[in-house]
């Protein structure tokens, strides 16, 4: 049997795709947090990453602590917290 080696980029791409397709329940969020997200139609990591911070904070019962929980869960699966834009002195 001959093995066909997979390109590292292909493996990384597949890993990214798998992480993006994970449900919000799979990334370790509290049930209440998952319920809040699902009420707004946010079911996958991909959906979550496409939602702006302000939109998340506008969800009922979703505050800064819940947002921090979401960011920490995303970091655990390899996505970095958004950094505020740097301001340069004039």
Outline the structure in words.
- This protein is mainly alpha-helical and 90 residues long.
- The chain has a domain at 15-76: 5' to 3' exonuclease, C-terminal subdomain (DNA polymerase, domain 1, Orthogonal Bundle), CATH 1.10.150.
- The protein is 50% helix and 0% strand.
- The protein is built from five helices and no strands.
- The chain is flat, with a radius of gyration of 17 Å.
- The chain starts with 7 loop residues before the first helix and ends in a 14-residue tail after the last helix.
- GO terms for molecular function: DNA binding; DNA-directed RNA polymerase activity.
- Residues 15-75 form the RNA polymerase alpha subunit C-terminal domain.
- It comes from Adhaeretor mobilis.
Question: Keyphrases for this structure?
Answer:
50% helix; RNAP_asu_C; transcription; DNA-directed RNA polymerase subunit alpha; mainly alpha; DNA-directed RNA polymerase; flat; DNA polymerase, domain 1; 90 residues; DNA-directed RNA polymerase activity; 5 helices
Number of helices: 5
What is the CA–CA distance across the termini? 65 Å
* Helical coverage, percent range: 40-55%
Question: Largest sheet at a glance?
Answer: none
Structural shape: flat
Tally of extended strands? Answer: 0
In what range is the share of β-strand residues?
Answer: under 5%
- SSE string, helices as H and strands as E: HHHHH
* Average pLDDT level: 85
CATH superfamily of the domain at 15-76: 5' to 3' exonuclease, C-terminal subdomain
Instruction: Please name the CATH architecture of the domain at 15-76.
Output: Orthogonal Bundle
Structural class: mainly alpha
Quick one: CATH class of the domain at 15-76?
Answer: Mainly Alpha
* Rg (CA only): 17 Å
CATH topology of the domain at 15-76: DNA polymerase, domain 1
Poorly predicted parts: none
């Amino acid at each position: 049997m001959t093995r066909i080696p997979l390109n590292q980029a292909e493996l990384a791409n597949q890993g990214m795709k798998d992480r993006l397709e994970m449900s919000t329940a799979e990334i370790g969020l509290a049930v209440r947090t998952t319920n809040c997200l699902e009420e707004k139609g946010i079911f996958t990591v991909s959906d979550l990453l496409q939602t702006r911070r302000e939109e998340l904070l506008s969800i009922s019962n979703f505050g800064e602590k819940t947002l921090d929980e979401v960011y920490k869960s995303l970091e655990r699966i390899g996505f970095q917290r958004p950094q505020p834009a740097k301001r340069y002195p004039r």
